[in-house]
Amino acid sequence: MTDGGAREPRAHSQSPVDSEFTATQQRAGDRERLAALRRLDACIQRFGAVLRALQV
C-alpha cells in the first residue's frame, strides 16, 4: 500500500532537457549505425569486384 504522497518514477516524466539529450543520443547512434552499414557495403562491393576479377 502506498500513501497519497508517493512520487511517480522519474522515467515516466522526462524534462525537456532529458528528452533532448535522449534524442541527441539516438541521432548519434543512428549516425554510427549508418556509418557501419556504409563500411559493410563498401566491403561487399570490394568482395564483388574480386569475385568478378576471378570470374567465379
UniProtKB/TrEMBL annotation:
Biased composition (Basic and acidic residues): 1-11
Top-rank taxon, per record: Bacteria
Residues covered by region (Disordered): 1-29
Compositional bias per record (Polar residues), positions renumbered to this chain: 12-26
Protein name (record): Uncharacterized protein
Record organism: Tahibacter soli
